[in-house]
Write a structure and sequence with these properties.
Elements lengths: L9 H31 L5 H28 L8 H7 L12 H28 L3 H22 L7
């Protein structure tokens, strides 16, 4: 732990930093999964999905930075290298053998939903640890993820 004048108790900060690093690994993993979809999607909805996936990526990268910076603000170290993320992410592996719009929409919707759920759980845990700022950060990220989940799911909800 690094010295800080932050008035949260050190025991709280340690627990919250671990929570933040867990979600940091997930967020970085999610960002790479989004790029996998962005680069490889093919089909009649290509350009719309290609551009949508880029917008989602930008939002997730912003969340990555906010999560990492919060961990450091609390006196911790942000753990975000590729090797750490590969060991630590709780997200399912993104399929590397898909290419259709439908398959990428489905896989990305699953990843966004899983990340959104873990972020909401982290918000509750931060609240239980009396860290309202971290809880608010996670709530804000959750809202953004839910919005983009809605955007992605809309592509699979058309009438047949």
């Amino acid at each position: 732990m690094h010295k800080t004048r932050n008035d949260l108790p050190e025991t709280t900060r340690k627990k919250v930093i671990q929570l933040l690093n867990n979600r940091l690994a997930d967020a970085i993993d999610l960002a790479t999964q989004i790029k996998q979809a962005h680069w490889n999607v093919k089909g009649p909805q290509f350009i719309g999905l290609h551009e949508l996936f880029d917008k989602i990526y930008e939002a997730v990268v912003e969340a990555v930075d906010e999560i990492a910076e919060r961990a450091v603000q609390l006196g911790g170290t942000a753990l975000g290298t590729a090797r750490i993320v590969a060991k630590s992410s709780s997200l399912k592996e993104y399929p590397s053998d898909i290419y259709t719009c439908k398959d990428h929409v489905n896989a990305l919707a699953d990843a966004l939903a899983q990340f959104g759920k873990s972020v909401r759980e982290s918000s509750d845990q931060a609240d239980e640890l009396n860290d309202a700022d971290t809880s608010d950060l996670f709530t804000s990220i959750s809202r953004t993820i839910d919005k983009y989940l809605w955007f992605v799911e809309a592509h699979e909800q058309e009438k047949s």
